[in-house]
């Protein structure tokens, strides 16, 4: 089996991309909120919006949303 130059270049490009991968940490306070959110007992709709702080390479809380049944009915 012969390797063509374009195949080698493609594999090398993938290697370079993976070596420059940056992983963000998750804010400690957000970790606790996510744990509570995951195991919450309420049956209403809720969401947590997160954003990435590029300077600190940190995932932080942007906003929390919660919809109660009474607010939907009004």
UniProtKB/TrEMBL annotation:
GO terms for molecular function: Arp2/3 complex binding. GO terms for cellular component: cortical actin cytoskeleton. One of its GO terms (biological process) is negative regulation of Arp2/3 complex-mediated actin nucleation. InterPro entries: ADF-H/Gelsolin-like_dom_sf, GMF. This is Glia maturation factor gamma. It comes from Labeo rohita.
């Amino acid at each position: 089996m012969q390797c063509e130059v374009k195949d080698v270049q493609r594999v090398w490009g993938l290697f370079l991309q993976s070596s420059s991968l940056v992983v963000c940490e998750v804010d400690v306070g957000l970790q606790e909120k996510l744990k509570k959110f995951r195991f919450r007992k309420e049956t209403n709709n809720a969401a947590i919006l997160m954003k990435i702080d590029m300077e600190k390479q940190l995932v932080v809380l942007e906003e929390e949303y919660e919809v109660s049944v009474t607010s939907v009915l009004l």
